[in-house]
Structure formats: structure tokens, C-alpha cells
Amino acid sequence: MSDAPDTSAMLSIGALSRLSGVPVNTLRTWERRYGWPAPARTSGGQRLYGAADVDRLRLVASALDRGHRPAQVMGASDEVLRAWVGESVRMAAAAHPDPTIAGWLDAVRRLDGDSLSRGFRAECTRLGLLPFLEERVQPFLVRVGQGWVDGELAVYQEHDVSERLRDFLVAHWRPMVEPEAPPVVCATLPGERHLLGLHMVAAVLATHGMRPVFLGADTPAVEIAACAASTGARAVAVSVGPTADAEAVRAALLALAGGLRPGVSLLVGGAGVPHDGVTGTRVDSLSDLARWARGALG
Asked: Do residues 115 and 94 make contact, with C-beta atoms less than 8 angstroms apart?
């Protein structure tokens, strides 16, 4: 009988990246620095991972998103990670109970996408786009992530609500774009596949009189710079997710800045922006982005 592991149900590093949302380069960096995730290997040296690695990576990403440092997170048990993630979200929810968000979460559990879409429209109309995103959408997404950590929501429920929200944002911002408005290229860096934050960026820009040129996820720096040159863009807006590798982000931003023409602003925002050594203008909130847009048009 062979002792070789059954690899039929195991995941490649690309599949692990897609399921967990953690870029491939980040997975390799964490393996090198912290010894985790520790893959099995095929006879040809290909990395293979188990389903449990997906669950832990999603916990790690949630902890990083709440401000814990990688060196601290990697050595923590799953129970400790759940406690860290759960405590911050539950404290915020207890301090600021929101029946609207609670209703949306119930719709997520029931896969009631129509109710979610109606709720998004109603709140966006009532509050205006920027308060809707900052006061409703951002805390709602945190609660959805916490629901997964606590085992109250399945991955398919989280994916369903993400698609509903993406569809809502696209339907909101694309029709308001004026063809003659100043263009701003919107993209994520290589390895970054999360797009909800970038759609929020595009929505804020469009609302404030800019024309988002939406390149989407995983875009090489040279292509972003080429698009900015081709469109005569006023700026490039880059969204960085919480699991992005800091060194890779710094290098990509430096390369991108070097390829931009003089006078083109590089705006960088998101939970994964490194604390130091960042090339470009750091944008810490959607309100900061709105202020930039108003100033650029003024």
C-alpha cells in the first residue's frame, strides 16, 4: 500500500488564492517568513493545500483587516483568531446597534437578493451615496465577514451578497458618468482580486463629477500607466485589500508611479496599504476621496 497522500481533493496555490482571497504572492511570502501555510508537494514540486487552509486563511484575512499584525496572527490558534475578530465586531455592534443592517443580514441568510437590492436602493436614496457607503455598506460587510467566522453564514451566502452589492454599485455609478468628465483610472495591483472596494471608489468618483476608467482586478502596473496616458487621466486610484503583501504593494506602486506622466496623481487606499514607504497619496476613507475629487475639480 502506498503512503503517498491522495491529491485528488487538494488545491493548487492558485485555487487556494481564489477561494481565500489572498494573493498568490502573499501566500508564498507568508510561507517563507512564517512557515505557513505549509503545503504538501507533488513529486514535481507543486504546492498542494487542504480545504482547512481556506478556512484559516479567511480567518487570518479578517484578523489582518481589523489591525492585527501578520507576525502576531500567524502564530495564533483558530480559536484565538475567532475571538479577536469576533470581539471587535461584537463590541461595535453592541455600541451602535443598527436594525437596517440586522435586516440585511437576515436577507443574506435567506438568500433574499431582491430584499437586499431594495434595501440598498432605499438607504442610498435616503442617505446619499457617501453616507450610505460609510455608514451602511462598510459596517454591513464587516458583519457579513463576522457571520462567516462565527459559522452563521456559509461561503455561498457571502458570495451571493457580494455579487448583489457589486451589481447595485455598478448600476448606480455607470449611468451617471459623463463622457467629457475628467478621467480617473481605477484598478487593483497584480494579485489583488477583490473589487467591492474599487467599485465604491468608482461610485464616489462618478458622484463627484469624475469619469472612472474601470480596469478592475489584477492589473499590471505598466498597463495601468499606459491606460492613464492613453486616456489623459487626471489620476490613478488603486485599491489594496487587507491580505496584500506590503513589499509587493510598495514595489508595484513605485513601478506605477515611475510610469505615470508628470501631473497625474496616484491615489492609494484600502485596508492593505502599508503603514510606511508608500508611493502616492494615501486615501484613508471614502470621505477623503470625495474631498480630493472636489478639490481636483475646483
From this structure: no
Q: What is the pLDDT of residues 220-264, one digit of tens each?
A: 999 999 999 999 999 999 999 888 888 899 999 999 999 999 999
Is the pLDDT at 94 greater than 50? The verdict is no
Mean pLDDT, residues 169-193 taken together: 93
Give the whole-angstrom CA distance, residue 244 versus residue 5: 31
For 294, phi then psi, to 5°, come to -65, -40
Q: Which of 22, 124, 109 is nearest to 64 (CA)?
A: 22
Q: What is the pLDDT of residues 67-92, one digit of tens each?
A: 677 777 888 887 788 777 665 545 45
Quickly count: other Cβ atoms within 10 Å of residue 160's Cβ: 17
Residue 249 phi, psi (nearest 5): -65, -45
DSSP single-letter state for residue 49:
B
CB 265 within 8 Å of CB 281: yes
Can you read off the three cell numbers belonging to residue 94? 453592541
Say if CB 225 and CB 170 are below 8 A apart: no
Residues 6+ apart with CB under 8 A from 263: none
C-alpha–C-alpha distance, residues 86 and 272, integer Å: 20
Query: Would you tell me the crossing angle of helices 78-95 and 138-149 to the nearest 10 degrees?
Result: 140
d(CA 210, CA 232): 13
Contact assessment for residue 256 and residue 221, using Cβ atoms and an 8 Å cutoff: yes
